[in-house]
Amino acid sequence: MSKTLVFGHQNPDTDTITSALVMADFLKAQGVEAEAVAFAEPSSETNYALEHFQIDAPRVVETVANETSRVALVDHNEPQQSAPDIQDVTITHVIDHHRVSGFETTDPLYMRVEPVGCTGTILNKMFKEQGFEVTKESAGLMLSAIISDTLLFKSPTNTPEDEAAAKELAKIAGVDLKDYGLNLLRAGTNLGEKSDDDILNADAKNFDMHGKNVRIGQVNVIGFDEIQQREAAILQLMNDQLSENGYDLFALIITDVLESDSYSLVVGEDLSAFESAFAKKVTDHKVDLPGVVSRKKQIVPPLTNAYE
Amino acid sequence: MSKTLVFGHQNPDTDTITSALVMADFLKAQGVEAEAVAFAEPSSETNYALEHFQIDAPRVVETVANETSRVALVDHNEPQQSAPDIQDVTITHVIDHHRVSGFETTDPLYMRVEPVGCTGTILNKMFKEQGFEVTKESAGLMLSAIISDTLLFKSPTNTPEDEAAAKELAKIAGVDLKDYGLNLLRAGTNLGEKSDDDILNADAKNFDMHGKNVRIGQVNVIGFDEIQQREAAILQLMNDQLSENGYDLFALIITDVLESDSYSLVVGEDLSAFESAFAKKVTDHKVDLPGVVSRKKQIVPPLTNAYE
């Protein structure tokens, strides 16, 4: 039997990278030969976590069927966010905390989806249920994922379960939760190092919304000044990529992680669904989204409904 | 918030009925107002279990959106096997052990699918993880589901986890596993009480196989003699229902539960997919399937692949 490859979504964020590493360890503890891989290098935020706990980044791959027939998915289930050749392999496991959409298997599998803030929270529970040891390194990885996905518990996706898991994991990882958390989030907001394309696409995901091809990126910042100076160039790039890739809508959510506020840049032939989803007029391809921080909870559901 | 309705698939079998009852208890233990319902009266097998443990059958409903906005699914996830108005309600939970297909949500949910023989096995684990008490009645229900779905551990869908759960539950339920199990299985095989339509449809499910509309029924028997005398009438009914409902293929799997053997009646415009799935010639709409007992594991995957 070939080695099980474990991976999260395209444009990996901290939860995707760390959950792939932790899930590979979980499978190994069950006697399954497994390796974490990723579809890109880690972001600066994820690198902060990996360096802090001295863990190697997952090997970067483009496709998976060329080296295995069995895969385990973490932090996603929608095929258009997954390996480009996901249809050619057997999915044996899914550990996720997103909506379920477009996901199909021929055989029964192990699938665990919970409406919590982070895949790491589910993985921590799975380790405890099985009585597997959580090492300092694994704890640090799961903790980093929870901080990243919940923006240190400020996101509406945060649940009491995420917060309890994070407190427990911070002790095992030997870090001060708040200090470590703020440093991790800050590490992801340095725009100076990022190209316009990085800002736009490093965390972008595609969604099929009632037949519409919608791409939504999100970038974390501290303060909106720096990004506003780059808006014109980013909007130009969004328009180029919209027509190149045939998206119906392309939105970039810009989120101030300390103030828990966002605004969005948005392009597309017809912006009325976006306007009706948020009951706001889009002016010059911009719209304020006060209090919004979660793409999953505050952007995708209203926009999906608006396309219905 | 309206009451959460909990239900399994159309044409309820023992796992669907008992898992709905047990999952409703699980939700109540979590403080959620919940009620088990079903899309038909229980089968004679299921009634044996309900009567043995003195438990009322779930209320029978045709639709769900008329009385609630929130539902929990057990023992199925495919929409064509679910409530006819499943698109109009929010699915908050899925506990299942089948392939995942056609299942879509707008929001994250609690979804637990495991490749074990029975939903009851997963529910038993969930009760233990949460530290909820398993009553004699709940134990009897979960045990009955495991016996029914695994044919007393003879089905290839059976796993060591199912068997371990059944042993544990038999003790709590206060029954002898083998005696109770054989009585339960026998209770489901009395063809004399069943109309041709019951035999054909009481446990039938629809599957979308790469765009083909495939219906597969299964009936448990002890010995093939009695059913063979009714074959001509059943085949006639299958042909009628095939054209009425526009199925591409309609198969009835007839399974001897004590011998662990089956044969199939099959109708449809083009039987070549069925023939290639099982590498057997269909003669007079009949084909032997020696050693086959599981629709889920031995019929659906090869047939789905044959349509690819």
Overview of the structural elements:
Two copies of one chain form a homodimer. With 308 residues, the first copy, chain A, is of the alpha/beta class. The first copy, chain A, folds into two domains: 4-187, inorganic pyrophosphatase (n-terminal core), CATH 3.90.1640; 191-307, Roll (Diaminopimelate Epimerase, Chain A, domain 1), CATH 3.10.310.20. Helix content of chain A is 39%, strand content 20%. In chain A, a hairpin with a 4-residue loop joins strand 9 (249-256) and strand 10. In chain A, helix 2 crosses helix 6 (177-187), helix 3 packs antiparallel against helix 4 (136-150) and helix 10 packs across helix 11 (295-306). The longest helix of chain A has 16 residues, at 14-29. Chain A is globular, with a radius of gyration of 19 Å. The mean pLDDT of chain A is 95. The interface between A and B is medium-sized, with 26 and 26 residues.
What do the pLDDT scores of chain A average to? 95
What share of the residues of chain A lie within helices?
25-40%
Order of strands in the sheet with most strands of chain A: 3-2-1-4-5-6
Structural class, from secondary structure content of chain A?
alpha/beta
User: Mind telling me the CATH class of the largest domain in chain A?
Assistant: Alpha Beta
Distance linking N and C termini of chain A: 43 Å
Number of separate strands of chain A: 11
Largest sheet of chain A: 6 strands, parallel
**Shape-level CATH architecture of the largest domain in chain A:** Alpha-Beta Complex
- Count of the separate structural domains of chain A: 2
* Quaternary organization: homodimer
Q: What is the third-level CATH name, the topology of the largest domain in chain A?
A: inorganic pyrophosphatase (n-terminal core)
- Superfamily at the CATH H level of the largest domain in chain A? inorganic pyrophosphatase (n-terminal core)
Low-confidence stretches of chain A: none
Tally of separate helices of chain A: 11
The radius of gyration over CA of chain A amounts to 19 Å
Binned strand content of chain A? 15-25%
Write down the secondary-structure element order of chain A: EHEHEEEEHHHHHEEHHEEHEH
Characterize the overall form of chain A. Answer: globular
The interface involving the most residues is between: A-B, 26 and 26 residues
